[in-house]
């Protein structure tokens, strides 16, 4: 920059001597070129350029220098200023772009304080750290004082007008510039303006937080990059340990590539990533890059120019060539099908190359890579001028330390290159010819052909070590002996860590060994060698022995994971279809061949339409040999049980509600007291409404009811015809209403205990009657609710009792009507509405008609409020219109069918669970359309019922996730509950209280060790892997969060049936399959434990499930085969 | 390319389930709010690199499951963390009361000098508030922990909270380094050790050396 400034200051009095002037112009334009190039690279690696980046300043400086040169300052009246800003203002009259920029510049200069404002503007609430210099703000605000130089060029650049302004200057150069000025030059002028087109198209960061400077690449990007690079590269098979499976990611990447080719956006973004990968990045060092290297791909007539680059990554050297057409990662929507170019691009792993042929001719330098398989890659033609040589020397350097070019490019004697100026020798193998380093003057160079062999000690060694067992042997001994091994180069080090950590050591050792060797006498060498050999062999043997023992242990252990007999998967492509399913049933509906069902499902899954029918079988809820009728009866019985259980907890729930209200009211009261605010609600009525919205998120909904109630109260009926809703309960606690309460409840309020007994009897009768009379089933829940319903609670939260007349059971229809017109004959009963179980709803019984009406006004506010609901009462209010009023009206009789008053402990325990359930149900899969408020409520009921039945276990986060897909398929609450209970039999051990998780982790470890030792090595190296927490969620939820719903269904089916077909621990293999799918990404990026957690969390719901599942089946098969071969 | 950051701080978010830990994290890392967050299972983390007095500080913020049942897993993460955010929900009294339990949990599991901060989240829901700001402050004074009320939804004080915590950690770290460097010898080894502990994550070291 300093140099440029000097240039600039000189430029004013530049004498018109032609030669230095031309030279200076050259220099100026070269400076611009360089800065543009750097800026573009920065843009491509980071996807954007920060406005305050040094590159921007440098570019602006270079441009300024160009513009300043030969400017007719005096003629334009600009002699007072050294900068070109005045020029800008001058041309603003004629050039609209300049006018725009000029205005911006003026306003920016006028408001130097904008910087601090910009930061605040972006994150209004965030107090900025004082030295947060990197903060970028809006365009205008981003002019920090230190970079006031080149202000207008800067702004013009950000506004993307710079190129146009320069173009204007060039076009009108005669007006502003001396004749010999750079801008006035017909060539340089246009070069300058076109150079700047690129930077003007860049994105300059403004809205981005400074964090994006340094963020890690997201999982998507990693996978995408991998797909790009995996397209053509297949690491040498030697490096693959035994039992390594096909690279599933590659397989799927082909499909993806073709899909991507069609859709513009994804291609563009992946292209951008790919281009980015060509540059220097954290994963691969760019050793060499050259543009306009020509390659003639297959099916193309002419060699095409492209970008050749040499990368050093963890896996080794990679040569990439990308057609120019692809290099423009930013031209996103050109509408050109780029897929053909992708096919043309080259990616060659250097270790796969055996020979490098060099053909030098007058026209060009060509380089041909010949692979291990003898296949030649298309010739790579370098432009003349030493590029080939510099490529080769970079290649040679890159090969070090554990590889080399043979013969070396540089002579051992250090006198010169193998070829530089080659004096007409045509030799297939170049010897170490002495020649000067004069590669600049290659124009007169004579053609020549050369062949280099790429020697890779590691690979050569590995070839000898093909036998996988032996390969492992070497892995087991500690590192020190391994070095010894390597240095002798008779045997070798292990495969996987080779390229990562060993090479430098080996390299050094080789050298030291060599020096030693050269120093010592032949005899001692021999001695050393034989000692080494002995050592190696003994170590190898013991290593092998230890390994075999270990392997046998692991195998024994693993043999428990899979079934010994392999069930073939023929004719299972379609899975279990409707037709097959029907054909497997006899006329009674019994299924004879259940193994066939399992087999079909295992290999092909269940057709979606019949999942509802099949799942109960798969989960063991229905027996296969049952008939239609039996199953129906089973359903009925189960439903009844379910409803009974529900009634029990609903009772407790009401108590819980009551307590919640009190607690909430208390804390709110305390809050308002402490804050000195008078409680706004004074009048009972208002209190009521207000309390609802405040406390429980109960929307004001309730308003129609209280009035109704109020009315009834006035009538002083002995019965609450509308049971006190929870809201009412709320209401009632307030002192004002206490008295009234007493009145209402009449004599029944006396003592809980007494009434409890009475009521108990009633309950039994009631439920019995329900059971006896099948027709009544529909109403059973409602009836139960009635029982539960009741009486207003006393302040202490204990439910009061409302005895229920058992005779009422038969009078349902009337009961419902009682809501509107309370009938005196239902002296003790309270409202009956529909149970939330949907069967009652569908009944078309008068009940639904009766209850819907009062409920409907409640609906609309509900939806809104629900989102924010937090308290326990929340989901209660979100019942569908039919069931809501019912639930709401649930008050509790402390005595229910299980008799007795609930202990405080029990109530508290359930309350705790209830709150958790509701918190989780509310946020369960809300973005999945199935989960409307109504269905969420079913989910809640399932959860509560299950937890009620397993109170000692309690609710655990994750249960919702497990029940949700079941409900989605089954729709019916009771059956879904049945299946959930079945599912939990196995799944409960996965939760923290169980032991299964640790076992899974241990098994995972063994499996990885057996099936993919390369990955195992990596994990082992990072140590942290003793706890496979990244797959915690996988196992806990059976991959429910990892896959999309439809895929969850298939995965679950697979898991369920696998226990009958192949393995009781299918989850393990699915987990392994997931891991294997991305093994290359994990290996390539050498991910540690945290990286993997992040990676998989980001990849959730983006997996190719069918590929993963089929890989999982393959893995099972592999283990089965492995054990069989034992 | 220079190394990507000067410091790596591991932070941890704990608090009852449903208080908004994930939302706070999401607000801080993505500057967005999503009403339909599903409960966190297991553990997750997000990264944001911030500029602190000219230093690039990479914050690796771990988000945990709130239910105490999962503490066996989450406590494994206490040890490595250098800063802990204790989150409660101002509309939920219970979650506030539980802060004490969480603090005890920290005392049992985290390193003794871990930086802490209490966040009273959801302060936008003023109509449902159950815990006054004063009570939060009082608790903070009692435990000598910094406190701020936040709203992930309205993006209130979230940035501030993380910056404050990060700055405190940085200050503590630099102080330690100063303390350990000049005198050396006896006190030094101990200091260094704890320093190492803080920098322990292997990724930190490997990243730096790779880049």
Automatic annotation (TrEMBL), chain A:
CDD domains: PH_RUTBC, RUN_SGSM1_like
A GO cellular component entry from the record: cytoplasmic vesicle
Bias kind Polar residues: ranges: 1-19
Region (Disordered): 1-25, 112-141, 252-272, 411-440, 472-500, 841-896
Keywords from the named record: GTPase activation
GO molecular function, one term: GTPase activator activity
Position of the signal peptide: none
Pfam families in the record: PH_RBD (PF12068), RabGAP-TBC (PF00566), RUN (PF02759)
Domain Rab-GAP TBC as annotated: residue spans: 605-1059
Biased composition regions of type Low complexity, renumbered to the chain: 256-271, 483-499, 842-858
Domain RUN: 50-211
Sequence similarity: Belongs to the RUTBC family.
UniProt cross-references to PANTHER family, sorted A to Z: SMALL G PROTEIN SIGNALING MODULATOR 2-RELATED, TBC1 DOMAIN FAMILY MEMBER GTPASE-ACTIVATING PROTEIN
The name this protein goes by in its record: Rab-GAP TBC domain-containing protein
Source organism of the structure: Pieris brassicae
TrEMBL record, chain B:
Record bears the keyword Lipoprotein: yes
Keyword Membrane: yes
Entries under Pfam families matching the protein: Ras
Main subcellular localisation: membrane
Chain intervals for the UniProt region annotation (Disordered): 174-211
Membership in a protein family: Belongs to the small GTPase superfamily. Rab family.
Protein name (Swiss-Prot/TrEMBL): Ras-related protein Rab-8A
């Amino acid at each position: 920059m300093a140099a440029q400034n000097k240039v600039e200051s000189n430029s004013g009095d530049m004498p018109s001597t032609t030669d230095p002037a031309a030279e200076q112009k050259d220099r100026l334009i070269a400076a611009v070129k360089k800065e543009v190039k750097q800026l573009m690279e920065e843009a491509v690696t980071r996807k954007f350029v920060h406005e305050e980046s040094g590159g921007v300043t440098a570019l602006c400086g270079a441009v300024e220098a160009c513009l300043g040169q030969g400017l007719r300052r005096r003629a334009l009246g600009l002699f007072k200023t050294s900068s070109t800003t005045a020029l800008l203002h001058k041309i603003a009259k004629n050039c609209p772009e300049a006018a725009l920029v000029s205005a911006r510049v003026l306003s920016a200069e006028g408001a130097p304080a904008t910087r601090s404002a910009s930061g605040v503007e972006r994150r209004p609430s965030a107090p900025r750290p004082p030295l947060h210099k990197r903060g970028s703000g809006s365009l205008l605000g981003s002019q920090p004082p230190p970079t006031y130089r080149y202000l207008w060029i800067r702004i013009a650049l950000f506004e993307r007008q710079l190129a146009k302004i320069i173009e204007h200057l060039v076009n009108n150069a005669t007006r502003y510039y001396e004749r010999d000025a750079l801008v006035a030059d017909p060539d340089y002028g246009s070069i300058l303006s076109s150079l700047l087109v690129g930077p003007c198209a860049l994105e300059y960061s403004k809205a981005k937080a400074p964090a994006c400077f340094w963020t890690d690449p997201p999982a998507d990007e990693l996978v995408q990059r991998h797909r790009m690079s995996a397209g053509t590269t297949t690491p040498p098979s030697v490096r693959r340990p035994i039992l390594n499976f096909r690279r599933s990611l590659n397989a799927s990447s082909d499909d993806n590539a073709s899909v991507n080719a069609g859709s513009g956006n994804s291609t563009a973004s992946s292209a951008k990533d790919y281009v980015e990968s060509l540059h220097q990045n954290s994963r691969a060092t760019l050793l060499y890059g050259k543009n306009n290297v020509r390659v003639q791909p297959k099916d193309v007539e002419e060699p095409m120019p492209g970008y050749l680059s040499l990368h050093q990554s963890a896996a080794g050297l990679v040569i990439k060539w990308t057609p120019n057409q692809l290099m423009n990662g930013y031209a996103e929507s050109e509408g050109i099908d780029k897929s053909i170019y992708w096919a043309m691009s080259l990616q060659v792993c250097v270790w796969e190359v055996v020979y490098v042929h060099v053909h030098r001719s007058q026209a060009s330098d060509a380089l041909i890579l010949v692979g291990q398989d003898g296949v030649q890659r298309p010739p790579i033609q370098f432009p003349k001028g030493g590029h080939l040589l510099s490529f080769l020397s970079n290649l040679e350097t890159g090969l070090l330390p554990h590889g080399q070019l043979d013969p070396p490019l540089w002579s051992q004697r250090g006198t010169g290159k193998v070829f530089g100026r080659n004096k007409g020798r045509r030799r297939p193998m170049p010897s170490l010819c002495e020649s000067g380093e004069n590669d600049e003057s290659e124009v007169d160079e004579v053609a020549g052909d050369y062949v280099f062999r790429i020697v890779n000690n590691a690979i050569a060694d590995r070839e000898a070590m093909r036998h996988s067992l032996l390969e492992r042997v070497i892995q087991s001994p500690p590192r020190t002996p391994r070095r010894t091994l390597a240095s002798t180069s008779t045997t070798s080090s292990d495969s996987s860590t080779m390229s990562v950590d060993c090479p430098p050591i080996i390299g050094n050792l080789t050298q030291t060994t060599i020096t030693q060797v050269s120093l010592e006498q032949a005899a001692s060498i021999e001695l050393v060698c034989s000692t080494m050999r002995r050592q190696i062999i003994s170590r190898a043997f013991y290593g092998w022995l230890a390994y075999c023992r270990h392997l046998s242990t692991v195998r024994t252990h693993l043999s428990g994971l899979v079934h010994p007999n392999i069930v073939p998967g023929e004719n299972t492509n379609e899975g279990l279809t409707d037709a097959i399913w029907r054909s497997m049933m006899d006329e009674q509906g019994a299924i004879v061949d259940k193994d066939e069902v399992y087999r079909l499902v295992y290999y092909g899954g269940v057709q979606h339409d019949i999942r509802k029918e099949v799942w109960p079988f798969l989960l063991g809820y229905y027996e296969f040999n049952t008939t239609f009728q039996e199953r129906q009866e089973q359903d009925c019985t189960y439903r009844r049980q379910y409803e009974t259980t529900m009634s029990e907890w609903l009772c407790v729930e009401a108590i819980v509600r009551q307590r919640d209200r009190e607690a909430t009211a208390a804390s709110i009261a305390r809050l308002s007291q402490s804050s000195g605010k008078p409680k706004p609600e004074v009048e009972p009525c208002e209190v009521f409404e207000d309390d609802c919205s405040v406390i429980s998120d109960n929307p004001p909904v309730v308003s129609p009811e209280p009035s109704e109630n109020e009315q009834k109260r006035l009538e002083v009926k002995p019965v609450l015809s509308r049971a006190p809703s929870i809201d009412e309960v709320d209401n009632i606690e307030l002192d004002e209403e206490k008295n009234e309460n007493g009145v209402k409840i009449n004599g029944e309020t006396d003592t809980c205990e007494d009434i409890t007994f009475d009521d108990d009897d009633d309950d039994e009768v009631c439920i019995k009657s329900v059971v006896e009379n099948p027709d009544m089933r529909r109403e059973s829940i409602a009836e139960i609710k009635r029982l539960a319903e009741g009486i207003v609670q006393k302040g202490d939260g204990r439910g009061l009792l409302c005895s229920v007349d058992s005779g009422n059971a038969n009078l349902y229809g009337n009961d419902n009507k009682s809501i509107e017109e309370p009938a005196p004959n239902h002296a003790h009963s309270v409202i009956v509405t529909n149970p939330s179980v949907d069967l009652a709803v569908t009944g078309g019984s008068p009940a639904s008609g009766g209850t819907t009406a009062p409920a409907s006004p409640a609906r609309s506010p509900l939806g809104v409020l629900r989102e924010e609901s937090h308290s326990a009462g929340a989901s209660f209010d979100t019942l569908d219109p039919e069931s809501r009023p019912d639930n709401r009206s649930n008050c509790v009789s402390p005595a229910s069918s299980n008799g007795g008053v609930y202990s405080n402990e029990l109530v508290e325990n359930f309350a705790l669970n209830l709150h958790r359930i509701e918190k989780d149900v509310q946020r369960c899969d809300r973005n999945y359309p199935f989960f409307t408020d109504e269905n969420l409520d079913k989910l809640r009921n399932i959860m509560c019922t299950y937890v009620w039945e397993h109170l000692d276990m309690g609710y655990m986060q994750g249960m919702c996730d497990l029940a949700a897909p079941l409900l989605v398929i089954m729709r019916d609450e009771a059956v879904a509950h049945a299946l959930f209970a079945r599912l939990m039999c196995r799944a409960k051990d996965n939760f923290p209280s169980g032991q299964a998780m640790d076992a899974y982790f241990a098994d995972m470890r063994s499996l990885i060790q057996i099936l993919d030792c390369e990955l195992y090595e990596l994990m082992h190296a990072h140590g942290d892997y003793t706890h496979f927490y990244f797959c915690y969620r996988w196992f806990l939820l059976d991959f429910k969060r990892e896959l999309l719903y439809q895929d969850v269904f298939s995965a679950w089916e697979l898991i369920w049936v696998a226990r009958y077909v192949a393995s009781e621990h299918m989850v393990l293999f699915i987990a392994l399959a997931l891991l294997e799918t991305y093994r290359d990404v994990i290996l390539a990026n050498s991910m540690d434990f945290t990286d993997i957690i992040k990676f998989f969390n980001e990849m959730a719901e983006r997996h190719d499930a069918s590929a993963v599942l089929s890989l999982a089946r393959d893995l099972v098969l592999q283990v089965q085969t492995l054990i069989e071969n034992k | 390319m220079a190394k990507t950051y000067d410091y790596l701080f591991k932070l941890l978010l704990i608090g009852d389930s449903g208080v908004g830990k994930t939302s706070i994290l999401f607000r801080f890392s993505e500057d967005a709010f999503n009403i339909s967050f599903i409960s966190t299972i297991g553990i997750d983390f997000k990264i944001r690199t911030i500029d602190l007095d000219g230093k690039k500080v990479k914050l690796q913020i771990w988000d945990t499951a709130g239910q105490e049942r999962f503490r066996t897993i989450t406590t494994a993460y206490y040890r490595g963390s250098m800063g802990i955010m204790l989150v409660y929900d101002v509309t939920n009294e219970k979650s506030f009361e539980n802060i004490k339990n969480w603090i005890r949990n920290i005392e049992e599991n985290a390193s003794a000098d871990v930086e802490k901060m209490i966040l009273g989240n959801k302060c936008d829901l003023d109509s449902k508030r159950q815990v006054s700001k004063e009570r939060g402050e009082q608790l903070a004074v009692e435990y000598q922990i910094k406190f701020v009320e936040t709203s992930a939804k309205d993006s209130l004080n979230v940035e501030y909270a993380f910056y404050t915590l990060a700055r405190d950690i940085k200050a503590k770290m630099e102080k330690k380094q100063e303390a350990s460097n000049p005198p050396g010898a006896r006190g030094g080894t101990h200091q260094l050790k704890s320093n190492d502990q803080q920098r322990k994550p292997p990724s930190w070291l490997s990243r730096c050396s790779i880049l």
